[in-house]
Amino acid sequence: MISRLLRYKNTLLFGGAAVWGLTLVSCVMVNRTIIMPPQVPGATFVGSKNCVECHQGITAAFADATHAKLQAPGENAKNIGCESCHGPGSVHSKKGSGYTNIVNPGKNPEMCFQCHLDKRGEFALPHAHPMGKVTCTDCHDPHKGDAIVSGGTQLAAANETCLKCHSAQRGPYVFEHEALRENCTTCHNPHGTVNDKMLKARNQTLCLQCHYQQQTVGGQLWIGGRDHAAFVQRGTCWTAGCHEAVHGSHVNSSLRF
Ligand code: HEC
Ligand code: HEC
Ligand code: HEC
Ligand code: HEC
Ligand code: HEC
Ligand code: HEC
Ligand code: HEC
Q: Is 138 a pocket residue for ligand 4 (Cβ < 6 Å)?
């Protein structure tokens, strides 16, 4: 089998071209891509509709999920959403039960990596969530919605995902940092980065995305109404002894401890 890599939007997909061809169809795009769902010996794809009969709970909420849009190609194109992660379900569906004839990935990220190859790379970076203690489904519900809880009114819900494990960052703080009203991912990439604490940037660049910086003559660096030129030489904004309480402070409005 000849394997190859395809870059699909921001996702690297892996597959044996001769074996599987799936198409992701959505209202904004029609794109062809080659990916590799799990396999079940002797079984063929039957389509997500087939699963409804016995798994109503899961299928009901699945309709608008990103993965529900995965389809097998060809004239008899089937909506294979469920089977893209659980493998072809003909044998399982016919028998109406059985724990051996369908794939249950459980907490194992390998199945996800098969299509999201770039995520394997991110989790291998020096600072990442420890796989084993934390897994994909702790943050992504594979059976519901966008698989990413974010956007619009869901921002609070997105942070909630993080706060269920990181209660120390929850507050409430006497002096809040408004940056946390946005998303934890403004500053952290939860899949992993090269920087300590999974930060997206290792220096003041992280903070200057929002805090206007005025570079004036004479090497001055104006942030928040003060010349910071001498301060930034002492370290990052949060290690130089100035704004250690980046998530919020109980003692100081300038986010000191
Ligand atoms: C993006 C991948 C993915 C898709 C698509 C998907 N599932 Fe799952 N499913 C999983 C994972 C991962 C688990 C294991 C969850 C766990 O153990 O934490 C699971 C578990 C299950 C289980 C075991 C019971 C349970 O809740 O733990 C059933 C039944 C199931 N899925 C049915 C379905 C059906 C039906 C569909 C389509 C409507 C579907 N799945 C679509 C990934 C997926
Ligand atoms: C005729 C009924 C029936 C149909 C159709 C059916 N299932 Fe199941 N499935 C079951 C039963 C019964 C179980 C045993 C566990 C339970 O009671 O939830 C099960 C278990 C599962 C599990 C968990 C297996 C494990 O090892 O934990 C998954 C995943 C699953 N089904 C996926 C699917 C998918 C995907 C489809 C559609 C392709 C499908 N099922 C269609 C009846 C069915
Ligand atoms: C058969 C291939 C396949 C498998 C297996 C798979 N995915 Fe996906 N997934 C896709 C494709 C294709 C997309 C859409 C890619 C895009 O828009 O860039 C996608 C999109 C996503 C998104 C973005 C959703 C959004 O709404 O933008 C997340 C999150 C995701 N997958 C998580 C997972 C997780 C977690 C697993 C394992 C439980 C998994 N995927 C398993 C193919 C797969
Ligand atoms: C600690 C929580 C967390 C874990 C664990 C996690 N993710 Fe994510 N993931 C997120 C968040 C939050 C986003 C949205 C990122 C953003 O908005 O910048 C996301 C976005 C994504 C996306 C879509 C955007 C992109 O970066 O391509 C995919 C695909 C994805 N995750 C797959 C996975 C897979 C596969 C795993 C397991 C190997 C996984 N994630 C584990 C939190 C997590
Ligand atoms: C299922 C629980 C869980 C979820 C959900 C979770 N984390 Fe974590 N997080 C952990 C664990 C476990 C560690 C490793 C802690 C350690 O080794 O001390 C960690 C480590 C971290 C670290 C590095 C801490 C350090 O001291 O180096 C950051 C930053 C972080 N997580 C941010 C996030 C963000 C942002 C989210 C939401 C997108 C999130 N986490 C969701 C469990 C979780
Ligand atoms: C404005 C940027 C920013 C935002 C937003 C942000 N963090 Fe952080 N976070 C940081 C910085 C900077 C550090 C490193 C602090 C240090 O090393 O002293 C950090 C460190 C952490 C740590 C490691 C423990 C610690 O306190 O040092 C965890 C866990 C963490 N953040 C979780 C979160 C969670 C959960 C959210 C969302 C509720 C979040 N962060 C939002 C900038 C941010
Ligand atoms: C997502 C945007 C955003 C990011 C990123 C961000 N901040 Fe903020 N920060 C704000 C907002 C909004 C306020 C409240 C309005 C203001 O005072 O400018 C604020 C307020 C502050 C204050 C209080 C100012 C005062 O005394 O009133 C400090 C100190 C601060 N931020 C430091 C940091 C540091 C350090 C970082 C990097 C780790 C950072 N910020 C990253 C948005 C952000």
A: yes
